[in-house]
Design a protein that fits this description.
288 residues; alpha/beta; TIM Barrel; 9-stranded parallel beta sheet; 9 strands
Length: 288
């Protein structure tokens, strides 16, 4: 199933994102978790991230293949420009196609260790270049990323939006947002995107908060902000992990409900391979 074909049928599209573990044992455990989630909550698709350092890149292909062939799920492989030549990327796409994978999330990617991104010799500088390269092969449905609060490296919100529009022109058939915690950031971004001529589905990406230190690290990297009231509640209970998780789940449920009520095409959950929070949130939404 091409993911772009899931939208526009009068119901929200729900999806989960996982990252590839470093060991075979952890990968098997993740497959068991995904099987349970699939049976209980029936996501429309799942995606697997692509390690910038290279150690888990092969496992991305393995996991999306097994999730699709063994678990019967529609899958999407993330693919980045980091450290790859055109030839290498072409080889990866051939491997994905041979395994029946039809969906790719085309990303520039971040440099390993948080350093400055550098274009590989014979590689690509932008996600839009990669999207165009994938589109030329004619086999894949292409997704792209967008940033309601602006990409950290963008010179301005308008410049960032121009890049998003260019990414769509190069082949992205839907966009998934970076994580955010204030729905107004999403609504304002979508309004600006539509005015700029972007017509593809823009799926909000939500990350359930399960740890104060972890979410502070993630928001620092991606430039997302935590609303003051939510941040104060988390700080008050940061030494109590169970309360922090409860606050995070409650906020994500409230976010998702309001997004869907206002017409968002679905929700993409950044699970961090922690099924409990995602399970609770999506079960609560689907119970409506």
């Amino acid at each position: 199933m091409r993911i772009a074909e899931l939208f526009g049928h009068g119901r929200p599209v729900f999806s989960f994102e996982f990252f590839p573990p470093k060991t075979d044992e952890a990968a098997q455990a993740l497959l068991r978790e995904v099987r349970d989630l699939g049976e209980m909550l029936a996501p429309d698709f799942v995606s697997v991230t692509y390690g910038a350092g290279g150690t888990t890149r092969g496992r991305t292909i393995e996991l999306v293949s097994r999730m699709q062939s063994e678990l019967g799920l529609t899958t999407m492989a993330h693919l980045t420009c980091v450290g790859h030549t055109r030839e290498e990327l072409g080889g990866i796409l051939e491997r994905l196609a041979s395994r029946g994978i039809k969906n790719v999330l085309a990303l520039r990617g971040d440099a390993p260790g948080g350093g400055k991104f550098e274009v590989a010799s014979g590689g690509f500088a932008h996600a839009s270049d990669l999207a165009e390269f994938v589109r030329a092969r004619g086999r894949f449905c292409i997704g792209g990323a967008c940033y309601p609060e602006k990409h950290p490296e963008a010179s301005s919100a308008d410049d960032d939006l121009r890049w998003a529009r260019h990414k769509v022109a190069c082949g992205a058939e839907f966009l998934i947002t970076q994580l955010f915690f204030d729905n107004e950031d999403y609504f304002q971004f979508v309004e600006r995107a539509r005015e700029a001529g972007i017509t593809v589905p823009i799926v909000p990406g939500l990350m359930p908060i399960t740890s104060v230190s972890q979410i502070e690290r993630f928001t620092k990297m991606c430039g997302a902000k935590i609303p003051a009231e939510l941040g104060a509640r988390l700080k008050r209970f940061e030494e109590d992990p169970s309360v922090v998780m409860a606050i995070g789940i409650e906020h994500a449920i409230r976010q998702a409900r309001r997004l869907l009520e206002a017409g968002a095409p679905g929700v993409h959950f950044y699970t961090l391979n922690k099924s409990h929070a995602t399970r609770s949130i999506l079960a609560a939404i689907k119970a409506l």
